[in-house]
Amino acid sequence: MAALEWQAAQFAEKIGIACEFACNHAEVDISTDQAIALFRICQEAMSNIAKYAHASHVEVTLEATSREIVMQVIDNGLGIAPADVLKPNAFGINGMVERAVALSGQCRVQAGKQGGTIVIVTIPLQPAQLDAVTV
Fold it and tell me: What is the pLDDT of residues 98-132, one digit of tens each?
């Protein structure tokens, strides 16, 4: 969580696009592999926003439920065309999907209903992690 919060602050400072971070728990106990995957996926999503979105605002949310952790990176930019997600040379998007799938999760990149792009990453929690989610 701290790394994602730091990343959001760095993005706002260095890129100049307002970026907010929110989480529904004070702490979430996840594995190192899960933490790295979420950080790298968020990093790639923000890189794409900086390069292509022409956004003025980004929101990163992390929500831990009893079964999974869900991260969303939402921008208010130009949005993404469905065909762009399917391009074979969309290496950044493909890398985000591969990172999530490697942890039995999924990553979807889609256009927002009112513009912008939404990256949604869902990673299941292991039984031992379910008890470690702290409020």
Answer: 999 999 999 999 999 889 999 999 999 976 554 55
Sign of CA dihedral 98, 104, 106, 107: negative
Spans of all domains in the chain = 2-130
Q: Which CATH architecture has domain 2-130?
A: 2-Layer Sandwich (3.30)
> Which residues, in sequence order, are CB contacts of 65 under 8 Å at separation 6+?
none
Overall residue count recorded for the chain in this entry: 135
Interval 37-66: pLDDT, tens: 999 999 999 999 999 999 999 999 999 998
Distance, CA of 122 to CA of 87 (rounded, Å): 22
Contact indicator for 34, 100 with CB cutoff of 8 Å = no
Instruction: Tell me if the pTM is above 0.85.
Output: yes
